[in-house]
Design brief:
This protein has about 280 residues and is of the alpha/beta class. It is built from ten helices and nine strands. About 50% of the residues lie in helices and about 20% in strands. The structure holds ligand C2E and magnesium ion (MG) (3 copies). One of its GO terms (molecular function) is cyclic-guanylate-specific phosphodiesterase activity.
C-alpha cells in the first residue's frame, strides 16, 4: 500500500508539472497576440504620505485581460515577456500611458502627482531606456521629478558600474529610483549604500507579519530608521489593517500603500483629493 501511494504522488506531481508547462506555453502564445492587439490596461494604486494623509502619487500596475482565459496576473506573464524579449515593448507602452495619465491628472488637480512605474531589469539595462523616458517626458509634459522607477533587487545582479552610471544619470535628470520588494531578494546591506536609491519599498510580507511576529516588527522599525539615516524615503507595501497603518506611522514610515487605503483601480476611478 505504501509503494502505490508513493507512486500515486509522483504521478500527481508529474501531472501538475506538465499542466504548469502547458499553461506557460499557452500564456506565451496568447501574450504574443496580446502585444500585437494591445490587450493591456493600467491600474493605479495610491501611495499615501503617512504624515499628512494626502495621496502623493500612484503606482502603475499592468493588467492583461485575455478574451480566451480572462485576467492574467502580471506575476504570471512578466517573466515570460522577459524571456521572449517582449518586455521592452510592453513597458514602453506602460511608461507612455502612465506618464500621460498622470500628467493629465496633475493638471486637473493643479498639483504635482507622482507616478511610480515598475521596470524590468532587462529594460532598465537596455540602451533605449533613457531615450524612452526623455521622449515620453517631453511628449507628456510630466516633470522628471514626478517620475519614480521601481526596480527589484534582481537588477543588482547586473554590472555594477553600468548600473551606477545609469542611476546617476537618471538622478541628474531628476528621476527617482525605488528599490521594490525590499527584503525578499539578494538583500545585501552594502547595495543600499553603493547605489543611490531615493526610495525603498518594504515588501508586503514584512508588513503583513509585523503584528504577529515581533522579530519582523523589529526589522520593519529598523529598516525605516536605517533608510532615514541614509536619506532614503520608505514606502510600506501591503497595508491591509488599521493597526499596521498606525504602527507604521508610529515608526515614522514616510509613505504607505495597500488594500486598506485603496486597491489598484482604473484611471477613471481615481480620487486624488481623498484624505486618509
Ligand atoms: P509590486 O511592484 O510589488 O506591486 C505590488 C503588488 O501588490 C501588486 O500586485 C498590488 O496589486 C499588490 N498589492 C497592493 N496592495 C496590497 C495589499 O494590501 N495586499 C496584497 N496582498 N497585495 C497588495 P500585482 O498588481 O498583481 O502586481 C504584481 C507584480 O507584478 C508587481 O509587484 C510588479 O513586480 C509586477 N508588475 C506589475 N506591473 C508591471 C510592469 O509594468 N512591469 C514590470 N516589470 N512588472 C510589473
Ligand atoms: Mg512595484
Ligand atoms: Mg513590491
Ligand atoms: Mg512584487
Amino acid at each position: 500500500a505504501k509503494v502505490s501511494k508513493k507512486n500515486a504522488r509522483i504521478v500527481f506531481y508529474q501531472g501538475a508539472l506538465d499542466k504548469e508547462i502547458n499553461d506557460r506555453d499557452h500564456i506565451r502564445h496568447l501574450l504574443f497576440q496580446a502585444v500585437k492587439d494591445h490587450d493591456f490596461f493600467l491600474n493605479y494604486q495610491p501611495i499615501v504620505d503617512l504624515s499628512t494623509g494626502v495621496i502623493s502619487g500612484y503606482e502603475a500596475l499592468i493588467r492583461w485581460y485575455s478574451s480566451e482565459i480572462g485576467f492574467v496576473p502580471p506575476d504570471a506573464f512578466i517573466g515570460i515577456a522577459e524571456e521572449e524579449g517582449m518586455i521592452i515593448r510592453i513597458e514602453e507602452w506602460v511608461i507612455q500611458q502612465a506618464c500621460s495619465d498622470i500628467a493629465r491628472l496633475s493638471e486637473c488637480e493643479s498639483r504635482a502627482i507622482n507616478i511610480a512605474i515598475n521596470v524590468s531589469y532587462l529594460h532598465f539595462i537596455s540602451e533605449t531606456f533613457i531615450e524612452t523616458l526623455k521622449r515620453v517626458l517631453s511628449e507628456t509634459g510630466l516633470s522628471a521629478s514626478q517620475l519614480e522607477i521601481e526596480l527589484t533587487e534582481r537588477v543588482l545582479a547586473e554590472d555594477g558600474h553600468q548600473l551606477e552610471m545609469k542611476m546617476r544619470y537618471l538622478k541628474s535628470m531628476g528621476v527617482k529610483i525605488s528599490i521594490d520588494d525590499f527584503g525578499t531578494g539578494y538583500s545585501a546591506l552594502n547595495y543600499i549604500k553603493d547605489f543611490s536609491f531615493d526610495l525603498l519599498k518594504i515588501d508586503k510580507s514584512f508588513v503583513q507579519s509585523m503584528l504577529s511576529n515581533d522579530k519582523n516588527q523589529v526589522l520593519v522599525k529598523n529598516i525605516i530608521r536605517l533608510a532615514q539615516d541614509l536619506d532614503i524615503r520608505v514606502i510600506a507595501e501591503g497595508i491591509e489593517q488599521q493597526e499596521q497603518y498606525q504602527k507604521l506611522k508610529q515608526f515614522n514610515c514616510d509613505y504607505g500603500q495597500g488594500y486598506m487605503l485603496s486597491k489598484p483601480v482604473r484611471y477613471e476611478a481615481l480620487e486624488p483629493g481623498k484624505q486618509f
